Amino acid sequence: MESDTLLARITDYANRPDPYPLYAELREAGPVVLQADGSYLIGTYHEIVALLHDPRMSADPRSRTAPAPAPDEVTRQPPFLRLDDPEHHRLRNSAMRPFGPPHSPGRVDSMRGEIAQLTTELAEVFQEGRRIDVVDDFAYPLPVTVICRLLGIPDKDEQLFQDWTDTLVASADIGPEGDTAERDQAAGQAQQQMGQYLVQLAEQRRGRPTGDMLSDLVNEPDPAVRLSEEDLAVNTILLFIAGHETTVNLIANGVLTLLRRPDQLARLREDPGLLPRAVEELLRYEPPVHMRERIPLVDVDVAGTTIAGGTSVILALASGSRDPMRFSEPDRFDPTRPDNQHVGFGSGIHLCFGAPLARIEAEAALGALIPHLGTAHLVQDPPPYRQNAMLRGPRHLPIQL
After folding, report:
1. What is the reported pLDDT for 162?
2. N or C: which end of the chain has fewer CB within 10 A?
3. Cis? peptide before 102, omega within 30° of 0
4. What are the residue ranges spanned by the domains of the chain?
5. What is the pLDDT of residues 50-93, one digit of tens each?
6. Cα 378 to Cα 271: distance, rounded to the nearest angstrom
7. 241 falls in which pLDDT band (50, 70, 90)?
């Protein structure tokens, strides 16, 4: 098949268990590969990093003219993740203030003990002779509980958020698969319901702060950075989704990788000090985020190819992190890899703001699970994957202890 079908093949669910041969084909085809729908696919490390830092590249889907954005993309208010500066900077700065200066370590670091306790409690299900679903029994409950506590969402309403999040994540996928009016309509409804819930919950705390992030946002004393009601709804939805969705995949991908490589599992069991570097290697080797879209605001030249302004450009981050022009033996999982400047969390002004929390949770999760995995084996390999090609990870990960 021709290289102009690569995006369609990468997003085809049949290739969800192992898209990496397609990424190798993409890199071989060239830094810039035109697709049948008029978009461009880029999978080489240096070009991806350069474009993520290029101010001429927009993250706003409303900048796209080819292929034309869906009607819902034009009318729906984007979160700051899909906006450009200066509006991106204003909203990101406002949404991140409750994390504490300098907008991430303070509040997140203070939860290390609580996260460690949660992982210990959840790991109690890993007992000899049991069959466990790593996703449902551990990888999902941990980050969802953490982000609910950070935002101040009552435990009883977690299921509501799971349903809304699943719908919104499905609508955020890249590629022709699932690109339907029905999907977009469901996402719009989910965003409206979730936003209304969060705004109402925040309003209950206006003037009566409760110490959580939602309370801090609604009680922001500086009117210059205080979020409007619409911005509060859109960006707290983003905080919730980004605060757990990628972490679920990171943990599940990590367990799957280690069970496939018992030598590395044993190595980490013997030397837990390697865990922080192992998490970085997982972000490179089996990242939770595989692709991001950018749109040039003007004509740009990339590796000798002129891309017209308004054209959709898909940056295959997972391909860039396995580019042999940047990483030695890129298809080998190596928790001691030096100079591991992966793009698992993106780069540039849109670098994932939830990265510090994801790293802490993944390190705590794997640290709690590794002692139990020595006698475990995969019930199904490959496991069933989520539909989403952009946020790739197992939907279930059954293991037998």
Report:
1. 80
2. N
3. yes
4. 3-400
5. 999 999 999 999 999 988 887 767 777 788 889 999 999 998 88
6. 23
7. confident
Neighbours of 160 (CB within 10 A): 14
pLDDT of residue 242: 80
Q: Go through 83-101 and write b for each residue having 16 or more CB atoms within 10 A of its CB, e for each that does not.
A: bbeeebebbbebbbbbbee
Residue pair 126/83 in contact by the 8 Å Cβ criterion: no
Give the tens place of pLDDT for each residue, 185-207. Answer: 888 888 889 999 999 999 999 99
Amino acid at 17: P
User: What rounded mean pLDDT belongs to the chain?
Assistant: 90
Which top CATH class is 3-400? mainly alpha
**Exposure string over 198-222, b if 16+ CB within 10 A, otherwise e:** bbebbeebeeeeeebbbbbbbbeee
151's tokens: 């935002």
Task: Give phi and psi for 304, each to the nearest 5.
Answer: 90, 0
Distances in Å between the alpha carbon of 296 and those of 81, 256, 345? 16, 37, 21
